[in-house]
Design goal:
59% of the residues lie in helices and 16% in strands. The protein is of the alpha+beta class and 173 residues long. It has a 5-stranded antiparallel sheet with strand order 2-3-1-4-5, sandwiched between helices. Helix 1 (5-21) crosses helix 3 and helix 4 packs across helix 5 (119-126).
């Protein structure tokens, strides 16, 4: 059933809002996936704050006009699932994992930082650590000098207590 003009305009407006928030986008062919597989894919994407939508290519082209993602227009051929996210690594990981599990999901390409990327670049992007992992490593790196300093300061009274305990044990013997 085709959409009416007002519904099409609403779809374009919704897509433009999602694209404005996104850092990266990906499109993939989904021909042959079952409803259950697409539902699982969408559920996993929603957990990772990734917007996934099956949309007509003409409506997506209209939504992309004037954005940094307009370079993906040559990729928009055939039935595609479109995804956009603030976290490019999470987006790439979801598509890479699901394309491994379901061979019918074929990643066509995407856009990252205003540049079109192919499926191989998306696979490489998925191998990067997630944002949370990078923040944890950064925090650990920032805490290392402070915690080392605290351990050094704590060692002086600890050594004094061990010496006193050794003297007490020596006198008791």
């Amino acid at each position: 059933m085709s959409l009416k003009l007002a519904e099409k305009e609403q779809v374009v407006i919704t897509l433009q809002a999602k694209i404005a928030e996104a850092q990266a986008t990906v499109v993939a062919e989904y021909r042959g996936l079952t409803v259950a597989q697409m539902t699982a894919f969408r559920a996993e994407a929603m957990k990772q704050s990734v917007h996934v939508q099956v949309v007509k290519n003409t409506l997506l082209k209209r939504a992309l006009v004037g954005t940094q993602f307009a370079v993906m227009e040559p990729l928009l051929k055939g039935p595609l699932v479109f995804a956009a996210a603030e976290d490019p690594v999470a987006l790439a990981k979801i598509f890479t994992d699901f394309s491994k599990r379901f061979d019918k999901l074929v990643v066509t390409g995407g856009v990252l930082s205003g540049k079109q990327i192919d499926a191989a670049a998306i696979v490489q992007l998925s191998k990067m650590p997630s944002r949370e992992e990078l923040l944890a490593k950064l925090l650990g790196t920032m805490q290392a000098p402070v915690s080392g300093f605290v351990r050094t300061l704590n060692e002086v009274p600890s050594r004094f207590v061990r010496v006193l305990a050794a003297v007490r044990d020596q006198r008791a013997a």
